[in-house]
Write a structure and sequence with these properties.
The protein is α+β, with helices and mostly antiparallel strands. The chain has 13 helices and 13 strands. It has two domains: about 200 residues, Aminopeptidase, CATH 3.40.630; about 140 residues, Aminopeptidase.
């Protein structure tokens, strides 16, 4: 077993399979796929360059009360490819003069959260707990994990806790007392599925004329595309094409905390069955796009996509994907779609609305943490124009 010594009422596990079943049963968190061993095992198994750890917090009676997923990832300042580059250059210059930033070595960031998914999918706290107190204990346990040198053959540079929604900030702002810096990132784009939408036609009928015409136009443009279900049996056949299509999309990101290994799809399809969905889009037998999604309780979470941008505009590939996510959610009678971050404006045009997300970050050492604050204060989400595609559902009678 890779069980570490319990410190501050916390136990650390280097493998999710080492966590005893009675802990899972007491926590009662596995109905949420992101806290289910089947999902966590699939992710860890295919990302060997990331160190995965799992923290279980206990109360004074030694009953488990919280669970957190930890990943130690490499972060290179040079990987930032957006409007912050001028700020990055200043930080690199100051850091090198002080001898605290190496151009060759990455920062090792100990991340509490889910590296590959946006949203509160990294920390589970039982309902009957003082959540502010638990967050403080978790912050202590994260530092303790990094300070126990035998866990790692490298030094951890900093700590990140991600992604807290606005309703959680009265809890998570406790981290500011521990010299964390907070900043907002691109919002999650969420679409509530109306119970009146018994089919995709019901969704279209709820839209204003302008947006309904736009949706029908996208469906018309994408008509030549053949949509195929990607499953455990045919995944290997399509994987090389999917990897290139995914690279097309990921290379456009401002920066990536971690690159997703698409071979993970095989384990996710096997472990999650019908709750993991992959569709491929083909033009004359050539794959020009794919989408992936996961059913989590009553929600649909859009995961990674791949696109051949040469054909995207002509055949409305990405728009078709967004509408297909909506198809899936309506057919499965789900409550909400989490479209994730990026491309916020086009997602808002299909009905999604933003959910603000906050990240907390601190450097392990005092002086670099001061420099980090300068960088953090420059970060803000990319503005976009929110669309409002739906008709007003209920008009108030005027008297």
């Amino acid at each position: 077993m890779n069980l570490c010594k319990k410190v501050h009422n916390a136990s650390y596990y280097a493998s999710v399979n080492d966590i005893p079943k009675d802990i899972w049963n007491t926590l009662g968190c596995t109905s949420n796929v992101y806290f289910n061993p089947s999902y966590l095992e699939a992710i860890a198994a295919h990302h060997p360059t990331i160190d995965f750890w799992y923290v279980v917090l206990f109360n004074d009676a030694q009953k488990p009360i919280a669970f957190a997923t930890i990943q130690v990832v490499n972060f290179y300042l040079d990987s930032v490819q957006n409007g912050l580059q001028s700020t990055i250059e200043k930080i690199k210059c100051i850091g090198r003069k002080l001898g605290i930033i190496s151009p060759e070595k990455p920062f090792k960031i100990l991340t509490c959260g889910n590296t590959f998914v946006s949203g509160e999918h990294g920390i589970f706290i039982k309902e009957d707990q003082d959540k502010q107190k638990v967050i403080k204990e978790l912050a202590k346990s994260v530092v303790q994990l990094a300070n126990t040198e035998k866990h790692f053959d490298y030094k951890v540079s900093g700590f990140m806790l991600k992604d807290f929604v606005r309703e959680s900030l009265f809890i998570s702002d406790e981290l500011l007392e521990y010299k964390y810096h907070s900043f907002n990132v691109e919002p999650n784009m969420l679409l509530q599925i109306d119970s009146d939408w018994e089919s995709f036609d019901g969704y279209l009928a709820a839209m204003k004329t302008k947006f309904r015409v736009k949706a029908k136009k996208a469906m018309e443009l994408s008509f030549p595309l053949e949509v195929r279900v990607i499953n455990a049996e045919n995944l290997e056949t399509y994987l090389p094409q999917m990897q290139q299509l995914y690279k097309n999309v990921s290379s456009k990101a401002g920066f990536n905390l971690g690159v997703f290994n698409l071979e993970t799809y095989g384990s996710l399809l096997q472990n999650l069955g019908e709750d993991y969905i992959i569709k491929g889009y083909f033009l004359k037998n050539k794959m020009v796009g794919f989408l992936s999604a996961m059913v989590n309780q009553n929600d649909l979470d859009a995961h990674f996509v791949g696109i051949d941008y040469k054909y995207n505009r002509e055949f409305a590939i990405y728009q078709r994907m967004l509408y297909d996510y909506i198809h899936i959610a309506i057919e499965r009678k789900l409550d909400e779609i989490n479209f994730g971050r990026t491309a916020s404006e086009i997602k808002s045009s299909v009905g999604a609305t933003p959910q603000e997300l906050t990240i907390y970050l601190r450097h392990k050492s005092h002086i670099p943490n001061k420099i980090l604050s300068f960088f953090i204060h420059k970060i803000e989400p990319t503005p976009f124009k929110q669309k409002h595609p739906f008709k007003v559902k209920n008009l108030v009678a005027q008297t």
